């Protein structure tokens, strides 16, 4: 997929999905799917218009951790079938009026012939424009615009805010239902203290990415992808209080039924179920006894849900 980090002109007419798409969750997917369908019907290039955050970030995004990294977002969009993504800094266009946004961004830059957005979509300086106004303005420039109905889960709209709240409370089942996929992070494996190897519980350590929302600290049943194969695992996200502690959140994952050197490699870890809070044990032996118990719960979980490893 081609990614434009600035407002570069398109070389062909496009079908555009509009939104921040920080999690590419089920609500986002409905808007994205509409643009893919229109692109197929009208022989248009499927594209997205989003943005990166900077000092001029909108108020609604100022303290919200991302659900996906920028690279993770691009990967998900590519998997859905998009060929292009415009994601300029917010400062590059935040002062445009709604009319200027449609004229300069959608028509002149993207050659948009179709656009889709959610019911709560806002655009233009000060978020002055809403979804109905977008439809009206697009009609003036011969652009078809569609407002996609809100996706509902549990009687309430699916939103990034709800998913962040579920993650922060450890409700992985709810978070993953709203996402439409297991919540995940992909980071480089760094060198740890290698204490686990001495007790036959080797782990990989990944510095938890600061741009992402920090889920509830503690131990999770997880799945780790290595070389296209998925392995059951147990992941602790926290500060390692039993062995001296660390200053920044660390993801430490024990991969079941796998041995090999992963240092320096980028590894994807997906979380499925919260098991318990992080705790400080009075001895290393008690720590590893608990890891053994957690590992068995992980094995049992994937025995009951083997499809999650395929």
Topology (SSEs and partners):
Elements (H helix, E strand, L loop, with lengths): L1 E3 L9 E5 L7 H17 L2 E5 L20 H11 L3 E3 L11 H12 L2 E7 L3 E2 L5 E2 H10 L3 E5 L3 E2 L2 E2 L2 H9 L3 H8 L4 E5 L6 H4 L5 E4 L10 E9 L2 E10 L11 E6 L10 E11 L7 H21 L6
Parallel strand pairs: 1-4, 2-3, 2-5, 3-4, 5-8
Antiparallel strand pairs: 6-7, 9-10, 11-16, 12-15, 13-14, 13-16, 14-15
Helix pairs in contact: 5-6
Protein described:
The mean pLDDT is 89. This protein is α/β, with parallel strands linked by helices. The chain starts with a strand and ends in a 6-residue tail after the last helix. The chain is 30% helix and 26% strand. β6 and β7 (129-130) form a beta hairpin. The longest helix is centred in the C-terminal third of the chain and has 21 residues, at 284-304. It has helices at residues 26-42, 70-80, 98-109, 131-140, 160-168, 172-179, 195-198, 284-304, and strands at residues 2-4, 14-18, 45-49, 84-86, 112-118, 122-123, 129-130, 144-148, 152-153, 156-157, 184-188, 204-207, 218-226, 229-238, 250-255, 266-276. The protein has eight helices and 16 strands. It has a six-stranded parallel beta sheet with strand order 1-4-3-2-5-8, sandwiched between helices. A six-stranded antiparallel beta sheet has the order 11-16-13-14-15-12.
The helix fraction, in percent, is 25-40%
Strand residue content: 25-35%
Q: What can be said about the biggest beta sheet?
A: 6 strands, parallel
* Beta-strand segment tally: 16
**What is the overall silhouette?**
elongated
Helices, by number, come to: 8
User: What class, by secondary structure content?
Assistant: alpha/beta
Radius of gyration: 22 Å
Tell me the series of helices and strands, N- to C-terminal.
EEHEHEHEEEHEEEHHEHEEEEEH
Low-confidence parts? none
